[in-house]
Amino acid sequence: MDKLIMEQENPLVCICIPVYNAERTIRETISSIINQTYKNIEIHVVDNASIDNTLAIVSEFNDSRITIHCNGVNIGGEGNFNRCIELATGKYTAIFHADDVYEPNIIEKQVSCFQTDINIGAVFTAAKTIDSAGAVTGSIGASKLSSNTAVFDFNLLFKSILKFGNFIVCPSAMVRTDIYKDQILWWRGDLFRSSADLDVWLRIAEYHSIVFLEEELMRYRVDSNQFSNQVRLRCERADFFLVTDYYLKNSKIQKFLINSDRLNYEMLVINDKVWRSINQYLNGNIEEATLLLRGLMSLKLFPAIFCSRRDLMTVAASIFLRLAITFKMYKASVVVLNYFRAKYNK
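Predicted structure:
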């Protein structure tokens, strides 16, 4: 009976950590998880055939709640997330990342949120961003939203994504385990590549409420070697649009969208093209940069531009880039464009 009461009041939380070659960060990540104020957790470290000292470091932790799983071969990032779903147990599951740091009360806060409403399917938090040395560099997450609304249904979530892009902090996600097991099953990396996580959150939101805690309850690492930073330097169309375009084909979704939602989406497309053109330019590909800039702006978008500092700075960067190309100011423009990219392409 005592065990049953404990399980109801303090349900088991499964923490999965997919990992590959994370010897520089995994110790700090695991330390932040085993020192949580919420104690009823089990931790599954799922190693994706690391070739560094990751496994040796994880093995040093003398904590019975930790179980190590080793993939015989590297099955890719999305494949390893699918493996985490297979291993998930308990009432709630979080897939935490091997290079991030979690504040001591993140699990406690998320579980408390879940316990307030059985309709909640997932709980996310905001995050501080940190560099490779752990120094705080900024913040990301739901605090970017102009609305104070914390609870989202599918319609509100999709409209917000069309306005703000993917503001959801993936490694903060805690999801009801039965939803992962029975509804999600796997990440559709074959369709959405690096944005398969966004598809998962939208699939959850189709049937359950999504909650965003405004508190910064984790530290999200961004350094020059990390995939999330490399995405900022890409010249290809963002995988994000694989997800939005997939859902925009749905006639039911089209029915609840209004003109401002479509204008917001057009601004996201323009932002993507501008930053890709800047990346092409900084790589010395002037012709490709010029092609991306063609026909970007229309008068109908100007009201949307002036409602967002991000969009305003993107337009300013595109104007500067056009001038730099026209007047062949490559050397003089590199410093300015690198500044724009570092500050506003997030």
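Summary: The longest helix spans residues 259-282.
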